Amino acid sequence: MRNIAIFASGTGSNFDAIYQAVNNKYINAKIALFVTDRPKCKALEKAKNYNINTFTFKSKNYESKKHYEQEILQELKSQNIDLIVLAGYMRLIGPTILNNYPKKIINIHPSLLPSFKGKDAVGQAMDSKVEVTGVTVHYVDQGMDTGEIIAQEPLKINNLQTREQIETEIHKIEHKLYPKVIKQLLEDM
Ligand code: GRF
Fold first, then answer.
1. Active-site annotation, residues
2. Predicted local distance difference test score (pLDDT) of residue 38
3. Would you say residue 94 has pLDDT above 90?
4. How far, in Å, from the CA of 41 to the mean position of ligand 1?
5. H helices within the chain, ranges in order?
6. What's the rounded Cα separation, in Å, for the pair 162 and 111?
7. Atom 2 in ligand 1: which residue has the minimum CA distance?
8. Cβ contacts of residue 186 below 8 Å, gap of 6+?
9. Spatial distance between the Cα atoms of 159 and 144, rounded to a whole number of angstroms
10. Are 18 and 176 in contact (CB under 8 A)?
11. Is the shortest distance between the CB of 169 and ligand 1 below 6 Å?
């Protein structure tokens, strides 16, 4: 069975969706590690409730990204991780981890990349008054939301919708698309 690691910094609704998909055997894998940079985030609480191994760090306690990523790397290696899944992890992955997991790190982003990279992609889409936005799953490289695209799903929006309504629709798409892509990638390994 393949081992996956989830990295998250926030609420963890995508983490939840992946956990459910693993739990009901839609995804044939084990979530062997959960990594967070936010000791107080909801996602960490969930990981603990699910009895998943966790690794928590505070970046300010380290000299540099390289130093905390070396510790994360040790955890990844000791758990024999096959796929790293970023689910609302609010940091760029550096070369220490990237070079050890080429094409084995994926991220989900709430826009149709390459549009609206970075923070608050939904706000950016609303400000730009686009009629279609969506969700992208992509491989992770050194850049911010720049890696090769794996899957995308569009969402029609209009100016009558509130941010909250759009975010709810985005999340619904994410919670189906991410488990589907993870399942496929693991089967193709
Ligand atoms: C998601 O919208 C995802 O696209 C982005 O961060 C958000 C995480 O949400 N990368 P959650 O913590 O999974 O609820």
1. 109
2. 98
3. yes
4. 13
5. 13-23, 42-49, 65-78, 95-98, 121-127, 163-188
6. 16
7. 110
8. 2, 4, 27, 28, 29, 82, 83
9. 28
10. no
11. no
